[in-house]
Amino acid sequence: MSLALFIIVALFNIAGFFASWWFLLPVGLAIVSLVGGIVARRRVDIVLSALIILALPVWLLGIIVLLALSPLLSNNSFSP
User: Fold this and answer.
1) Distance (Å, rounded) from C-alpha 10 to C-alpha 50?
2) 33-77 pLDDT, tens per residue?
């Protein structure tokens, strides 16, 4: 676990605080899958963690598409 945290901190220092999410999200997903693979001891655990990890990008893509398709407010305000 400490190795994964060290890698995350190193990537933030290399990429910078305002790094693109297109860089940080795949790297974060790879680190999560690495930690999940290390923690999983049985074959069922490995398959379950792989299914969960594969579902994360689909959820993120769905949120991005929903935000892109939602209509913007005319005055950028929530007041009537």
Assistant:
1) 25
2) 777 777 777 777 777 777 777 777 777 777 778 777 777 666 666
Contacts of 8 (CB under 8 A, 6+ apart): 28, 31
**HEC string for the chain:** CHHHHHHHHHHHHHHCCCCCHHHHHHHHHHHHHHHHHHHCCCHHHHHHHHHHHHHHHHHHHHHHHHHHHCCCCCCCCCCC
Distance separating alpha carbons of residues 41 and 39, to the nearest angstrom: 6
User: What is the token pair recorded at 47?
Assistant: 């398959």
pLDDT in tens, 23-35: 666 677 777 777 7
